[in-house]
């Protein structure tokens, strides 16, 4: 549901963003909970050992691509809600 909200935010810049810092902080808390359950990395992880990790890798790369596209919109002089950029960044880290 948050992705639909994010898309609406990006499409309607004439209104205040719905995806606010509160959404970003929630993602950060989720990331922290997952990180707390993981052992520290001792080597580079190559995704794809399991199908689920391959799906997450694809989701991460698509989310990064969307983030870069939104930065290009901003670089072109268009308005972008800062919280939308932050949300995409944190979402890709979650993947």
From TrEMBL:
Cobalamin adenosyltransferase-like domain residues: 2-94
Keyword terms: ATP-binding, Nucleotide-binding, Transferase
Pfam families the record matches: Cob_adeno_trans
Keyword Mitochondrion included in the entry's annotation: no
A single MF term (Gene Ontology): ATP binding
KW Transferase (keyword) present: yes
InterPro entries in UniProt: CblAdoTrfase-like (IPR016030), CblAdoTrfase-like_sf (IPR036451), PduO-typ (IPR029499)
Protein name (record): ATP/cobalamin adenosyltransferase
């Amino acid at each position: 549901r948050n992705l639909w909200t994010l898309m609406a935010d990006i499409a309607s810049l004439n209104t205040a963003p719905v995806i606010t810092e509160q959404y970003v902080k929630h993602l950060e808390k989720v990331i922290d909970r997952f990180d707390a359950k993981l052992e520290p990395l001792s080597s580079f992880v190559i995704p794809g050992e399991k199908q689920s990790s391959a799906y997450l890798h694809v989701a991460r790369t698509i989310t990064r691509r969307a983030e870069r596209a939104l930065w290009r919109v901003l670089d072109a002089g268009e308005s972008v809600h800062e919280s939308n950029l932050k949300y995409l960044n944190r979402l890709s880290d979650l993947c």
